[in-house]
Amino acid sequence: MALLPVEEALARLLAGAAPLGEETIPLAQAGGRVLARPVIAHQTQPPFDASAMDGYAIRAADVLSVPVELKLIGESAAGKRFSGVVANGEAVRIFTGAPVPQGADTVLIQENTKRLAGDSIRVLQTVAQGRNIRRAGLDFAVGDVLLEPGRVLDPAALSLAAAANNAELHVVRQPKVAILATGNELVAPGENPGPDQIIASNTSGIAEIVRLNGGMSLDSGIVRDRIEDIETAIGTAIEMGADILVTSGGVSVGDHDLVHAALTRRGMKLDFWKIAMRPGKPLMSGILPGKVRVLGLPGNPVSSLICAHLFLAPLVCALSGRHYRPDIRAARLAIDLPANDSRRDHIRAEIALAENGELVATPLPLQDSSMLSALARANGLIIREPDAQPARAGAPCEVFMLR
Ligand SMILES: Nc1nc2c(c(=O)[nH]1)N[C@H]1C(S)=C(S)[C@@H](COP(=O)(O)OP(=O)(O)OC[C@H]3O[C@@H](n4cnc5c(N)ncnc54)[C@H](O)[C@@H]3O)O[C@H]1N2
Ligand code: MOO
């Protein structure tokens, strides 16, 4: 049977995947979240005409010819304004961010003045009317729509929301992604593996892919290759409120590959299982009662992470309201590549900038799907379409950047 093409599998996985509902959270917890509603200004900024410099608030007409002396009548500081009025021949000492007093129309920077004994200054340079004043509302005014729904709350967005006095924000609910590792051979990092055991590594990388794409990962731990145990763990993930259940391992055809059977017992409706992709052929997708999406990742660590980059990342983005923007670039092959078979290939490679400004992609010598050291060394994946013809060094290729 022909394997499902990668693009079709992705389209099926994402069909109907829309942002989850919304919730209201404190501003301090909103970093990286996605706005579900616009952010409106509850405050005008600046709320008053404010000085942009440390100096003197004056009337420009008084300094048309210099030098000239002005009488100092008070001080306006940020947080404490001068409440009088500046008249002809007068000046008020003023600091950055302070309200410009009535009567003054200009701020003179202090470098262009000399402080005299007694309460006066000598103005050494003329200044254009209105200089160094930030008008009230320069940045935004009450009622302005400052940020649109869909905006990821990055540093500037968070500070803007704060400046406009929004202590809480309406954001898209964060998808919860339960990650379940399956395999008799697995022990958690930090434990002492027995003679036939290895360390479970997939959960760590998958959880980071979830986080980077706006999701919250829940560690469902490690479960043995017993159908009842896998079923119980699936039930626990559902009870924890998972929107997505990611399993790793146990999706191939061996006698201990029981994930499909356990999910079926739990009522999963299978969408696809096995796709035209290397690594990652046994990828499985389906949906459990309660609309919990299931992504069954292969156990091989590199297959698991590459499938998570290509499938889990866009799914988490879709549920969290983010745009999925994979970093795909044009490069040139550093070496010849043979013809490809019927699976889309993702070749671990080092991508470097050549002197002519082009990217050059050098495949790593070993491509075994168990080799995390090679995946960590690679900064990109050369994408080879199914049945691609042999390619010569220097031929154009497409790379999926990993970092
Ligand atoms: N006869 C066939 N055998 C295999 C096929 C096939 O088509 N026919 N497909 C191969 C491919 S491709 C892959 S990928 C693997 C995937 O198999 P599973 O998803 O069932 O994974 P496991 O057998 O459970 O484990 C594979 C490998 O990965 C290690 N593993 C598993 N989980 C973890 C984890 N959480 N952290 C680190 N390492 C993990 C496990 O120990 C195995 O070494 O099947 C091929 N076989
Ligand atoms: O395609 Mo499997 O995913 O070799 O490693």
Summed up:
One of its GO terms (biological process) is Mo-molybdopterin cofactor biosynthetic process. By secondary structure, the chain is an alpha/beta fold. The protein contains seven helices and 26 strands.
What features would you highlight for this structure?
alpha/beta, 31% strand, binds ligand LQZAQKY5, MoeA-like, 403 residues, 6-stranded mixed beta sheet, binds molybdate ion, Molybdopterin biosynthesis moea protein, domain 2, Molybdopterin molybdenumtransferase, molybdopterin molybdotransferase activity, Molybdenum Cofactor Biosythetic Enzyme, Chain A, elongated
Note down, in words, how this protein is organized.
One of its GO terms (cellular component) is cytosol. The protein has helices at residues 6-14, 155-163, 202-212, 227-239, 259-265, 301-320, 372-377; strands at 22-26, 39-40, 50-51, 55-58, 68-76, 90-94, 106-109, 113-116, 120-123, 133-134, 145-147, 168-172, 176-182, 186-187, 198-199, 216-223, 244-248, 269-273, 277-278, 284-288, 292-297, 328-333, 344-353, 359-363, 380-384, 396-401. It is α/β, with parallel strands linked by helices and 403 residues long. It folds into 4 domains: 6-20 and 174-320, MoaB/Mog-like domain (Molybdenum Cofactor Biosythetic Enzyme, Chain A); 22-45 and 150-172, Molybdopterin biosynthesis moea protein, domain 2; 50-134, Molybdopterin biosynthesis moea protein, domain 3 (Molybdopterin biosynthesis moeA protein, domain 3, Beta Complex); 328-401, Beta-clip, CATH 2.40.340.10. The longest helix has 20 residues, at 301-320. Bound molecules: ligand LQZAQKY5 and molybdate ion. Molybdate ion (MOO) binds next to loops. Molybdate ion binds at residues 278-281, 298, 300, 303, 369.
